[in-house]
Design brief:
- The protein is built from 7 helices and 10 strands.
- With 229 residues, it is α/β, with parallel strands linked by helices.
- It has a single domain, classed as Rossmann fold.
- The strands form 2 sheets. The chain has a 6-stranded mixed beta sheet with strand order 6-7-8-3-9-10, with helices on both faces. It has a 4-stranded antiparallel beta sheet with strand order 2-1-4-5, covered by helices on one side.
Length: 229
């Protein structure tokens, strides 16, 4: 079963002469375990596509399915529930809470899980150890390098064991060496967890690693290139 499908999805803003078709009649399917890049110039629609896939926005028309379930007509609470259990997010700006430690930042992802506090702390520590930060649990973001902050963000996304991880320009704020190290980590986690990784990027370094490149231009799918593993 596909982990995510967009069926004739459009996202339009404004109307009449001010109408902007950020995404226009866009159809694509992603399978479990993919390591895929959505590419295109700024304003092409790739971030809009990720927002629809991540259920952060609703299509003007068309359907978004997550793990075989149509999200059309679902309440905000139901959409939040799907996001909370099946989707993890990795942001280019890391989006860490400055006053919290690495451990506490990862624990935040579990605060609605209903799990005991001791269990959430243990799971967060395990997730940080998995990304190589097991000895930096008490560091705050300003005590970590950019690459380490991105690892905390990855640990936070992974701690819920989601089926789908969405990364919007994950290397944009990293130098090339650190970016490569983060990509190595995500490629390993992709293999070990069999989770689907979807990246939005125009970074050639990220695109070279992808096993599939979906190119978007003016809100439309213009190329879908699948590569060998």
């Amino acid at each position: 079963m596909a982990i995510c499908e967009l069926e004739n999805a459009s996202r339009h803003y404004g109307s009449g002469p001010t109408l902007v078709k950020a995404l226009d009649d866009f159809s694509v399917t992603f399978q479990p375990g993919e390591f895929t890049v959505l590419s295109g110039p700024s304003g092409s629609g790739k971030t809009t596509a990720l927002n629809l896939i991540g259920l952060l926005d609703n299509p003007t028309s068309g359907v978004v399915k997550i793990d075989g379930q149509s999200t059309a007509g679902l309440s905000s609470r139901a959409l939040t529930e799907i996001r909370g259990h099946k989707i993890g997010f990795i942001f280019q700006s890391f989006n860490l809470v400055p006053v919290l430690s690495a451990l506490e930042n990862v624990e935040l992802a579990l605060h609605l899980s209903g799990l005991d506090e001791g269990v959430t702390r243990e799971l967060a520590a395990e997730s940080l150890a998995e990304v190589g930060l097991g000895d930096l649990l008490d560091r705050r973001p300003n005590q970590l390098s950019g690459g380490q902050q991105q690892r905390v963000a990855i640990a936070r996304a992974l701690v819920k064991k989601p089926k789908l991880l969405i990364a919007d320009e994950p290397t944009a704020n990293l130098d090339s060496k650190t970016g490569n190290q983060v990509l190595d980590l995500m490629a390993r986690l992709n293999q070990e967890h069999d989770a689907t990784f979807l990246f939005s990027t125009h970074d050639p370094m990220v695109m070279e690693r992808a096993r599939r490149v979906v190119k978007i231009l003016d809100g439309r799918l213009v190329e879908d290139e699948k590569r060998g593993a």
